């Protein structure tokens, strides 16, 4: 997948036309790191259009969430020269910055070394790598993400717990308001502006609902191409956080931001169509679940436990996946079932064309490129090996207990031992990801929590 500059002039023409139509004066050149944080440069539009391709060091892909780097021992495979990457725009991922005072574009870029080789540590490239395996067989995955988030009061001191925000009524939510329209309407000014921004950016939002937690909401996206929708989830996260700040509160995608409240997920609905016919390959002619569908689920069941660092990438992520009275409907295993929200892999009721599986394991804090890449990789391995799934769960799947890693440490060990996933996602990428996440885990353990001071300081 070496970058070929063929059509470069066409790309320039497309950008020139779009910039002229919107009066663009400034460009935000964006790249998503392993954590999902947007990195990049800001350039004048005129310079950008006149061949000003920005560059960044490839070390942004081994940077931790705190801005640090793995120890030398963990990154022996890494090239210490910190090579330059050239950022190449994807003309299908060009958006306005609707809140900017001056007309500004934000463009998602792919990363290539100066010799034309792709940067295999880029999360966007990892997803492209997996999609290429499907394309080689004439298959096209279709996904529909659902992103949950919390609105919370601004909190300038991280030692204090988060609280629900105050709505139009002047009151905080004090109880769960699942699916309540009035609870959503408490924040009408914020959501009206959010939808205006999303419409200006061309994001394919579907529905907005109030979720189980106090101040917790969910936005659903229309189904479509995995790469395009991963781009949109990244853009939506940025948009929601910006809109919330403009209304005096925070929008957070932490997996478990508040104790005694449910966590936030990023469910991914997945189906598979034939490129030539457009037929859903997860259903047979008679409308029943196909062999490919069963094998896809078998692959998810087999490999998701090893892929959990992509679905639950942070220490906080595993608080969401613990079964308790306040965990909501978060799954704790990889059982599957029809129209069953207690399973990790839910099959909604649908006609043959809509046959799909909903992966409910990922947290809202995960990188959407890596969530989709990992989920599709697990399913692909299942289809290639013709793995049969276990029988579907009937009733509560929670009674089966937690069969997933219960912390980031065991999860990283499981990923380290899974060669099939490394072969698909890229061995160098997986090693880099493990190094970054282990560095974050070590840094977390240097912080003493308030629980430890409360219960251990004077008692042990």
UniProtKB/TrEMBL annotation:
Question: Any keyword Magnesium?
Answer: no
UniProt GO molecular function: ATP binding; glutamine synthetase activity
Q: Which residues form the GS beta-grasp domain?
A: 25-116
* PROSITE patterns per UniProt: GS_BETA_GRASP, GS_CATALYTIC
GO BP, one annotated term: glutamine biosynthetic process
Return the Pfam families for the record.
Gln-synt_C
Q: Which UniProt keywords apply?
A: ATP-binding, Ligase, Nucleotide-binding
TM segments? none
Q: Which domain of life is it from?
A: Bacteria
Q: Does the keyword Transport apply?
A: no
- InterPro entries, alphabetically? Gln_synt_N, Gln_synt_N_sf, Gln_synth/guanido_kin_cat_dom, Gln_synth_cat_dom
**Occurrences of domain GS catalytic (ranges):** 123-460
The family assignment reads:
Belongs to the glutamine synthetase family.
Protein name from the UniProt record: Glutamine synthetase
């Amino acid at each position: 997948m070496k970058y070929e500059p063929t059509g470069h002039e066409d790309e320039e023409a497309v950008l020139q036309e779009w910039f002229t139509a919107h009066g663009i004066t400034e460009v935000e050149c964006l790249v998503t790191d392993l954590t999902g944080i947007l990195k990049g440069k800001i350039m004048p539009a005129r310079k950008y259009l006149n061949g000003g391709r920005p560059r960044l060091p490839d070390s942004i892909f081994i940077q931790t969430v705190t801005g640090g780097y793995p120890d030398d021992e963990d990154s022996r495979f890494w090239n210490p020269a910190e090579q330059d990457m050239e950022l190449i725009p994807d003309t299908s991922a060009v958006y306005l910055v609707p809140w900017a005072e001056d007309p500004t574009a934000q463009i998602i870029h792919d990363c290539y070394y100066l010799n034309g080789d792709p940067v295999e540590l880029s999360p966007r490239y990892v997803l492209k790598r997996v999609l290429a395996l499907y394309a080689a067989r004439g298959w096209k995955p279709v996904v529909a993400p659902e992103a949950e988030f919390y609105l919370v009061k601004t909190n300038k001191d991280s030692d204090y717990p988060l609280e629900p925000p105050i709505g139009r009524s002047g009151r905080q939510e004090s109880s769960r308001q699942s699916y309540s329209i009035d609870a959503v309407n408490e924040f009408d000014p914020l959501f009206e502006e959010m939808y205006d921004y999303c419409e200006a950016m061309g994001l394919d939002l579907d529905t907005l609902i109030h979720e189980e937690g106090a101040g917790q909401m969910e936005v659903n996206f229309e189904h479509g191409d995995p790469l395009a929708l991963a781009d949109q989830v990244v853009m939506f996260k940025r948009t929601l956080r910006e809109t919330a700040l403009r209304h005096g509160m925070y929008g957070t995608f932490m997996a478990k931001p508040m104790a005694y409240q449910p966590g936030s997920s990023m469910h991914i609905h997945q189906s598979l169509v034939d490129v030539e016919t457009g037929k859903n390959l997860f259903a047979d002619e008679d409308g029943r679940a196909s062999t490919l569908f069963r094998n896809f689920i078998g692959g998810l069941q087999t490999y998701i436990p090893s892929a959990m660092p992509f679905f639950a990438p942070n220490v906080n992520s595993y608080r969401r996946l613990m079964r308790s009275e306040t965990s909501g409907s978060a799954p704790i295993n990889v059982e599957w079932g029809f129209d069953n929200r207690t399973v990790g892999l839910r099959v909604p009721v649908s006609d043959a064309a809509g046959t799909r599986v909903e992966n409910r394991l990922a947290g809202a804090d995960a990188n959407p490129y890596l969530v989709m890449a990992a989920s599709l990789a697990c399913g692909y391995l299942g289809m290639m090996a013709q793995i049969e799934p276990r029988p579907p769960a009937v009733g509560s799947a929670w009674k089966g207990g937690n069969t997933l890693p219960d912390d980031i440490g065991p999860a990283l060990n499981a990923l380290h031992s899974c060669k099939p996933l490394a072969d698909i996602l890229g061995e160098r990428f997986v090693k880099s990801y493990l190094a970054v996440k282990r560095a974050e885990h070590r840094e977390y353990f240097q912080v003493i929590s308030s629980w430890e001071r409360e219960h251990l300081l004077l008692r042990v």
